[in-house]
Design goal:
alpha/beta, 332 residues, 41% helix, 6-stranded parallel β-sheet
Amino acid sequence: MKKRVTRNDVAKLAGVSPAVVSYVMNNSNYVSEEKRTAVLNAVKELNYTPNIFAKSLRTNRSNQIALVGDTLQAELYGELSNRLFEKGYFSTLFFSHKDDSFINKLIEGRYEAIFMASNAFEAHQLNRIVENGIPLILYQSRNYEGLDPRIVIRVPDFYDGVRRVLNFLILKGHKRIAYIPPLLYQATGAEGNDFRAKAYSDTLRENNIEVNPDFFSIHTQSESSILEDVFFMMTSYKADQRPTALVASDDHIAAQVLRYVKKLNLSVPDDVAIVGWGNIASSQITTPELTTVDTEIPYFAYEVSEALIQMAQGIKVESKLYKGRLIIRGST
């Protein structure tokens, strides 16, 4: 069995002390450029990888950050994970469960910070995380009563983005506009506490357009239940009464809906326009390409990863809303 390369091996080859190797690996400024170069060359030659677990025992830090979601936002989580890794942090992705035992596992997991992009929990459950000394960034898409002020909010401006979408569609002559909430949305109808749902109902009313409860999908436990709602919307009404536009809460759902309505022999956008959210890569490979709200995922992930690391190091971070940009493509 091949012997594991140690810090002492690197130090010997580089002609420095083991402490200098540690300084270089931790990107310290207290090392001359000559010694830094010697250490890095030795690291490369020996293919040295620091023992993260041993380091965590020495420093009492895990360098672990938890990413929690209830939908698959692969591009966002991928960007976050890569950014964190570049800074020496490992991330673990969880799909959330609503019960307290999941929160307990997070608290017990020695995570230095948590990014929560889930609608599954109530304020008192989220508060427990920061009460136990773990920094938390919340990707907040709905209103919470009694949220601990120590919780940092980093999120796209859902309300503003959906208003832009609705006003764009209304200017194009659409009045029968349906809204499809995110997966696992806690269904309370268009008057619910989801920021996108509120923007939907507010904008329609401001334009003297009636909010039809049938045009608001509330069965979002799975993609199949969402498509069942779409089937009901598009087949239960005559052609001059059914929705002429469908606004989905993310591009993945929008792409699924687009494919589904085409199977119903409906033309996009002639019979029904479709709008997504996020501007993920797949929004440009549908036929037609999706109109969507660009939330600049790479930039957002960079900012959130930096904030998570700062919070893990005890640095105060402020909440922030990120404005989206409407990108008009062939689906409208």
